[in-house]
Amino acid sequence: MNKTFQVRTSTSSIKTRFVALCAIVFLLPFSAWTATLQIDRVEPPHWWVGMKSQQLELMIHARDIRNAKPSLQYPGVTLVGTHASDNPNYLWLQLKVSANTQPGFLNIKLRQGQDSTVVRYELQAREKDSARREGFSSADVVLNLMPDRFANGDPSNDNQAGFADKANRESKQGRHGGDIAGLVKNLDHIAGMGYTAIWPTPLLENNQPAFSYHGYASTDNYRIDARYGSNEDYRRMVQTAKQKGLKFIQDIVPNHIGDHHWWMRDLPAKDWLSNRNTFTPTNHARTTISDPYASALDREGFTQGWFAPSMPDMNGRNPRVANYLIQNAIWWVEYAGLAGIRVDTYGYSDKNFINEWVRRLREEYPRLGIVGEEWTDNPSVQAYWARGKTQANGFRSNLPSVMDFVLQGQMLKALSEPESWNTGLRRLYESLANDQLVAYPQDQVLFDGNHDTPRLFSALDEDPALTRMALAYVLTTKRTPQIYYGTEVLMTSPKKHDDFDAFRADFPGGWEGDAINAFTGQGLTSVQKEHQQWLRALLNWRKSQEVIHHGKLMHFVPDSGTYALVRYQGKNRVMVIFNKNKSDTSIDLKRFQEVWPAITKATNVISKEVLSLNQTFLAPARSVTILQTSIP
Ligand code: CA
To answer: What's the pLDDT tens digit per position in 567-604?
Structure first.
């Protein structure tokens, strides 16, 4: 439990009404002795000294607090102003925390008539070099997993008093019991596979009555769901992972909350949520943001519409909402020691709000990784969000990376469909021309699949060879790669695109008594074992390959079912050769001499075999080969 703030109330009247409520040690990180003002929330629950931005806005929730008069005395900290809303139960305090302020507790006095309440609010010291933390990049490989479905390290936390959605492993919409303890237990396996970063779907409290396992409907933005563990468990996991070479990326959802969020019992303002706090469905019309012909009505219909009735849409145009969400994200980065953030439903938020959200985060942490989800098959819609370019309508995005749904979709088509002058591998080839639309293509996150997509192996008709081609592409092209959990052992799913729950089956071996165990290899088929070993070899090789992380790329027009791309940097060369044909195919290497001059020897990076090359290379039927060499 993080030590944060305390509240004390006193009265100057003779007849003291001081009632000592026992220190409130329920999950709120503060204690209270109260008379009139019953403060149940101060958020953020604590803050730090030495942040780049000296502004700090506290949201205080207490019955009839709106007219309370605040004051404080602490060297370096000034009360700049207050805000109230149309709800008398909220008060916002604006503080300035000057550069050399020392850590400690502020006593914030709130006076109401004769009575006063003191909030003891903690300003902590920051971790050394916190602002300079490294983010994730094209040198990393990110593992995306669902905590509820990965491993159950502590069956005793599966059900909790006060949480309605009880564990039910038989239901694909139920909670299965996976948790932080299960993740911690298997960090060595993850690191051993060769991943260098983990993106778990959200771990925040989702105390929703049903369908809560996915985590995208938070009910408290400052608390890890007790069924996963505590805030401190989360922080310890991130620290432990770091020691094993694994960065952590938190999945944050600025666009919406769950309809059982504590705010919903007493909304902070009439415009706290979009559409005056009333459900209106989004039109999902993501093109309206960049479309020069879109109507304002449709644009509003996209960003102001709610994702679902159970997911109230945050009104990022309300400055209190915006500040709350910005500080909340900074709080988690600083508190847990994150390397990055994956932003859910990025384009659904108000454009100016979400751009400012990113700017403030990067102002505090200039190298923090942030990747936004924009689920589109339209390259210009995706590129609109990538930083480094001014768009036609004058917008400049701050977002470092965008999830590359466009290339992922084209990759699946390229591998599934027959070859022709404009289908199959040609599709993969032509898609890279879209890289001209973005300033930093290597920062786009290319993935084999995620919690919202059919699994790769199934999407490719359970063909292990095509699956290896896709993974080799994801891991060697000029992108930041992300792999979905279970891909390593060829997990399957329906191919139907909206059967979400079925894309999120339990990782084999994560539950006591599982007959198949992907951590130990017990019960895996020989095809699964071979695939897992192949992926492990590729990931571990990639870890040290600067040429893949930051090298240039040249590729050549696909020819008769084959395609070659070359990564190059200095004298280092890596050629990736795809052959979709059902027979071995001879490839003329002379065609590649611009970047791959007469080379006589190269190493197969998976088998480590050294090959003598002549003018041709015989690509095995239905294969991908990765050759590495250095030029004289
Ligand atoms: Ca559990």
So the answer is: 999 999 999 999 999 999 999 999 999 999 989 999 99
The model's pTM is: 0.94
C-alpha 514 – ligand 1 centre gap (Å): 15
> CA–CA separation, 386 vs 334, rounded Å?
25
How many A from CA of 511 to the centre of ligand 1? 9
Q: Ligand 1 center to residue 595 CA distance, Å? A: 52
User: How far apart are alpha carbons 1 and 506 in whole angstroms?
Assistant: 30
Round to whole Å and give the CA distance between 67 and 84: 8
Q: Looking at the annotation, which residues are catalytic? A: 344, 373
d(CA 323, CA 333): 15
Q: Are 371 and 400 in contact (CB under 8 A)?
A: yes
Q: Which of 111, 125, 114 is nearest to 72 (CA)?
A: 111
Nearest to 252 by CA among 294, 277, 221: 221
Question: How far apart are the C-alpha atoms of 154 and 185, rounded to whole Å?
Answer: 10
What is the mean predicted confidence (pLDDT) over 219-245?
98
**How do residues 17-40 score in pLDDT, each as one tens digit?**
333 333 333 444 444 444 578 999
**Which residues, 6+ apart, have CB-to-CB distance to 38 below 8 Å?**
32, 62, 63
pLDDT, tens digit (0-9, with 9 covering 90-100), for 258-280: 999 999 999 999 999 999 999 99
